[in-house]
Every structure is written in C-alpha cells, then in structure tokens.
Write a structure and sequence with these properties.
Length: 556
C-alpha cells in the first residue's frame, strides 16, 4: 500500500540533492527543495516534471529548527556539506530533527561525522524517529557488496574505489571536503590496528571490468576519507585491512592533488580549502574522454581454508552514473512509501540496503555489475579473462578457447586487403596474408602458462602472434603481440558474439597515441554450427589494412 510522504531536501538544488529529487519525479512524494538561495530553489522547482510535487524553501541549515517546526516534513534529507567541516556544532540538523520529531537521512561522506551519529541513538528512539547517516555509495553499497562476499568466503582485506565520469560534474561542497582532507590524517585499519594515512597521499591502479563488458581504462585511485574506513571494520571483525579511493580524471589534475597532499603532510601546511573554488572550476571544465564511470570492491581472504579473492565491478554509461550516489536514499524512500520503514534510532547507514535492493534500482538504466573470482592459472587464457561470462559464449567459440593442449583447427576464409601501398606494406610487415578471395586456412594453437601462440596459415602465407593475459595497466585485457607491435584488447560479449576491441597499443614497448590505434569490427561467433571469425583491421590515415572472415572446425 502506497503511503503519502512529505520530504525536505536541504541543499535540494545542489548536485546530489537535485539528482535525488529527479529520481523521485515519478512518485507521489511532496518535496520541499530547501537551501539558502530561494531563487535557485524556485528555478529548480519550476524545471521539474512528473507526478511528484515540489515547493521551494529559503532556509539556512543553521536555522532549520524553526522551518521543521512550521512544515514538519516526514523526513529531512541533508544534502549539503562538507560534513567534515561543520564547525563546533556539527550535529545541529540532527538535534533539530530530534526536537521536531522528524526522520533524518544524509549524504555525509565524512567518516568521523557518520561514525559519531550513533551517539543520538537513544534520543532518536525516544523521539520515535529513524536517523541514518552516510546514505550513499560509500558505505551503503560497499557494505552490501561485502556482505554478499561473506556468503561464500571469509573477507580479511577490502579495497574499493569510485571512478566518476569526467562529465558527471562535482559540487563545490564536495570539492571543499576533498581538498580539506588532502594531506591530512585519514583514519583506517591496517593489520588489524586502527591507524591513519595521508588523505590523497596514497594511490593504487585498478581496472573496473565486469566480465564480458568493455572495461574502464586502468585508473589511478587515491585514498579518500569516507565512512567505510571506520564503520565497516567494526561491523566485520574478520576484516584487518581496508582502503578506499577515488579515481577522478583527468589524471594530471589528480596527480596535482596528490602532490599537494604530500606537500601539506611533509611541511605541516594548513589545509588547501581556500583553493577549492579553483579546483572546482578546473575540474568541471576539463570534460573529455569516455562518458563512463565505475566502482569496484575487492575482497581478499579465504574460502574453505584456502586463499581466495573476489571483486565486484560496476560500470555506468553516460548520464546514469552520476545518479548512483543518490540511489540509496531513493530506494529507502520508495520502501517507506510501501510501508517498509527503517527501525528507529540513529546510526550509520551501513546495513540499510542489500545488493538486491541496488540491483532493482539499476534496472532500466545502463548500469552493469559483475563478479570476478580467483581462477586457477592453469585455466585457458580466455576463461581467465572472461570469468563467469565465458560460459555464455556460443559452444563452438567455447570449444576453440577452452583447451590448454596444442591443437589445430582448419577451414576456409575470404580475404580482403587494403589497396594503398602503405596498407599493403603494413600488412606484409605484420605478416597478414595479402591474397583476396576465398582460400583455405588452418590455425595451430600452442598454449603455455598464461599465453598462447597462434600460427595462422592462409593457403601457404603464414603469420603468427602471441596472445597473453594482460597485467598491470592491461589488467583484464587480452594482449596480442605481432612482432614489435602489441595491442591490448577487451573481450566484450554482445548478441552471442565475442568482440575483440582494441584499447591500447605499443610499438617496441613504447605507448602509441590513441588516435592512431588500429580498429575494426572483429568478432567470433557461430555460423552453421561452426566457429566463425570476422576480423577487420584498419588504421587512421591508412584505411583498411586487412580483413578476413571464415569458419573453422577442429582437426581430428
């Protein structure tokens, strides 16, 4: 049964509050859009459409008590911040909600602030209200993933990160928070001991790659001050180490923040908060690259007494990714509409939602998730890269790649080649066959650990390449070496086809410009019950170099 609900979003015309209001547009909720700038609240409300209704309110968070007593919404959502810098009375809004008997949710990302909300637990219960803090991807989604991992393994070490799309935009208050703790102490757990590290002073690289999907590029993540670092180890006693990072792009700006953080820590400088508007201005104008974002959570521990690793990956395409931080509160509000109300009391929102709750929120959006687990290095290389997605391939494609023994497959192919002298010269350099029309072909596969030699014979014209499992910046990619050229390929499954999409390339180990990266519509599938290949290789300024398609069956 759907209930009537009135909410107030403090900072409702801001980045996170505004996105939450948009996510709720199809509901029956009445939404007060509140903030210090009444004209901005009015403009935001006027622009909204849908079945939800909106009213603008001009109010400062420090004077919210009177407004709560006058309007008495069912729930107040604090989407302001930065929660790391709320002065001498950081819980003023919580106290006002308790006094007014108004339920409370917030987007807080400051670990100390979120952890400290439990001190109001008894008062919230006495007032008959719920108060959840940190209702966002960190720590709600992270914790849901960890609980899912713990169904099949003992998790001892956790690493996670969020990589926003460069087109997502970032609020000034978020920028103030990040710059404020850059170079300061961030509390976390290492080796089972509560300690601290330098905010934005530590970095790791990771590739977000749900199996069978086009991964994000290998990104730099740097340590951030988020609630997970304090609340998750206390809720999961087996966890001895936790590290959480953010991977903003462009990387040059990211590295500048890293350098400033290290300089502040080394020379005991004050926080760089006053430079927040500059970073905010620059970051929101340097929008280039892929309009994609992602998140990962990696758990290391044991399964049945043996070392084991699992990782959860999320990809968000286009404009859907920026809504994810607001989805936790959206899901809670939709549950409240159905009569599923959180228990009374004040606490971090760590256990507020399950991964299944998030999966429902991701439906009908271009948000993809997937799991990776430890796979023995004796497995075929395509199975290691694709993980569980390997079993979704057509059977002939599985049969060709699901073997670690030397073997040969034969068939016929139709070739086509570039007509220019440069295209033919490149084809000869790499070793591609240069005969057009239909020709017999056979391919010999010679596996070794984590790699496989492919020797192709097109009617007497032979060329070879070595395919290997990518490492480092090529993690979760297939690398193929043709002499001095090495191409890193993503294995992407679409419509019963396995596409091989180029992502990076080097010549003699030297990274080459992306705009010169060879491309083409290359895929493997099934045709008349046989393994079918379609390879097309082209390059900017050159055009078609070589293309061939055909079928193969295993030699007896």
């Amino acid at each position: 049964m759907t209930q009537k609900l009135t909410i107030m979003i403090l900072g409702g015309y801001g980045v996170f509050g505004g996105r939450l209001a948009q996510l709720l547009a199809d509901t029956s909720i009445h939404i007060y859009i509140a903030g210090r700038n009444l004209s901005k609240a009015q403009a935001f409300c006027a622009a909204q459409t849908g079945s939800a209704t909106y009213s603008p309110i001009g109010v400062d968070r420090n004077e919210i008590a009177a407004t709560l007593n006058d309007l008495h919404p069912d729930i107040l959502i604090d989407a302001t911040g930065p929660f790391q810098d709320y002065g001498n009375d950081p819980y003023r809004v919580l106290s006002a909600c308790i006094a007014a008997g108004v339920n409370y949710l917030d987007f807080a990302d400051g670990s100390d602030f979120v952890f400290g909300t439990s001190q109001f637990d008894a008062a919230a219960k006495d007032a008959g209200i719920f108060m959840l803090s940190g209702v966002s991807s960190f720590p709600v989604l992270t914790a849901a993933v960890i609980r899912e991992m713990e169904n099949t393994m003992v998790v001892q070490q956790v690493t996670g990160g969020i990589a926003p799309s460069p087109y997502a935009g970032i609020g000034l208050n978020v920028m103030r928070a990040v710059v404020g703790y850059a170079g300061g102490d961030v509390k976390l757990t290492r080796g089972g001991v509560e300690t601290s590290a330098i905010g934005l002073g530590e970095s790791k690289y990771f590739t977000v790659a749900p199996p069978g999907e086009l991964p994000l590029r290998n990104l730099r993540f740097s340590l951030v001050d988020v609630p997970d670092l304090q609340v998750i180890p206390r809720a999961h006693p087996d966890i001895t180490d936790i590290w959480m990072g953010a991977g903003p792009v462009p990387e040059i700006l990211h590295r500048i923040l890293n350098l400033l953080a290290k300089a502040r820590a080394k020379f005991k400088l004050p926080a760089f908060t006053r430079f927040s508007p500059l970073f905010y201005w620059v970051l929101n104008r340097m929008k280039f690259g892929e309009h994609r974002g992602g998140m990962f959570v990696r758990g290391v521990g044991t399964r049945n007494g043996q070392p084991h690793e699992m990782s959860w990956h999320l990809l968000a395409e286009g404009d859907d990714g920026p809504f994810i931080p607001s989805m936790a509160i959206e899901v809670i509000l939709r549950k409240v509409l159905r009569g599923e109300r959180p228990e009374n009391g004040a606490r971090p929102a760590t256990n507020a939602l399950s991964l299944a709750d998030y999966d429902m929120a991701f439906n009908n959006r271009t948000i993809i998730t997937g799991w990776r687990e430890s796979i023995t290095s004796d497995a075929p290389i395509y199975r290691q890269i694709l993980g569980a997605a390997f079993d979704t391939l057509p059977k002939p494609v599985q049969d060709l790649h699901n073997d670690t023994r030397p073997r040969r497959w034969s068939g016929n192919a139709t070739g086509e080649h570039g007509k220019s002298r440069l295209a033919r010269a490149i084809a000869r350099l790499i070793g591609f066959a240069t005969t057009d029309g239909e020709i017999p072909v056979n391919v010999t596969f010679t596996p070794s650990k984590n790699s496989e030699l492919w020797e192709r014979d097109f009617d007497g014209q032979k060329f070879r390449s070595t395919q290997s499992i990518g490492t480092g910046r090529d993690a979760h990619l297939l690398t193929e070496r043709f002499g001095a050229v090495r191409v890193s390929l993503a294995l992407v499954i679409r419509d019963d086809r396995l596409y091989l999409q180029p992502r990076r390339w080097t010549v003699l180990g030297i990274p080459m410009p992306k705009f010169l990266l060879p491309s083409g519509d290359s895929f493997e599938s099934t045709l008349d019950g046989k393994f079918h290949f379609n390879v097309r290789i082209a390059a900017p300024l050159v055009g078609l170099i070589a293309a061939y398609r055909g079928t193969l069956t295993p030699d007896k």
